UniProtKB/TrEMBL annotation:
It is a multi-pass membrane protein. This is Bestrophin homolog. It is found in: Cell membrane; Membrane. The keyword tRNA processing does not apply. Belongs to the anion channel-forming bestrophin (TC 1.A.46) family. Calcium-sensitive chloride channel subfamily. It comes from Diatraea saccharalis. Pfam families: Bestrophin. The keyword Lipoprotein does not apply. GO terms for molecular function: chloride channel activity. Forms chloride channels.
Length: 166
């Protein structure tokens, strides 16, 4: 980011605290149009392709901001947690093997004392529940969250490197 762009960004920050993810896209659009006028871009088709790609980036950034700002209501996680634990209490009771009654002609004797598959289901479902709880706010500040700042810094460095290579 140039010093003049930083000043414009800070000036806009003073006017409105809203996100300004669109400003670099506007600057990129202006650079593309200026490059076409100066003859650095050979055809209008290339300009159109670049602008379509910028529009796609803007659309994806908007979707990403939507994921970050719209939180899953707390009641959903509570309902899923309650349903999960209720299911496994019922499964633990329902899958127990009951020995034959005394005096019964059945010779079946239970040889399984631990509900292995119920325990495996419990591990998988509780694991998925914990992953879902982490994904409720994927861009937070916890150790489990996506390191968005690192990704943005990396992409900016790659873009600058690409500019210097050409």
């Amino acid at each position: 980011m140039l010093e003049s762009e930083r000043k414009v960004f800070e000036k806009m920050d003073g006017k409105s605290p809203m996100s300004k993810y669109w400003m670099p896209l506007v600057w990129a659009t202006n650079i593309i149009n200026r490059a076409r006028k100066e003859g650095l871009i050979a055809s209008d088709h290339i300009v159109q392709t670049l602008l379509v790609e910028l529009s796609d980036i803007r659309r994806r950034l908007g979707a990403l901001i939507g994921y970050d700002t719209v939180c899953v209501p707390l009641v959903y996680t509570q309902v899923v947690t309650l349903a999960l634990y209720t299911y496994f209490v019922a499964a633990l009771m329902g899958r127990q093997l009951v020995p034959a009654a005394p005096g019964s002609t059945s010779k079946y004797e239970p040889d399984v004392y631990f509900p292995l598959f119920t325990a495996l289901q419990f591990c998988f479902y509780v694991g998925w529940l914990k992953v879902a709880e982490v994904l409720i706010n994927p861009f937070g500040e916890d150790d489990d969250d996506i390191e968005l700042n690192w990704l943005i810094d990396r992409h900016i460095k790659v873009c600058i490197l690409l500019v210097y290579l050409h």
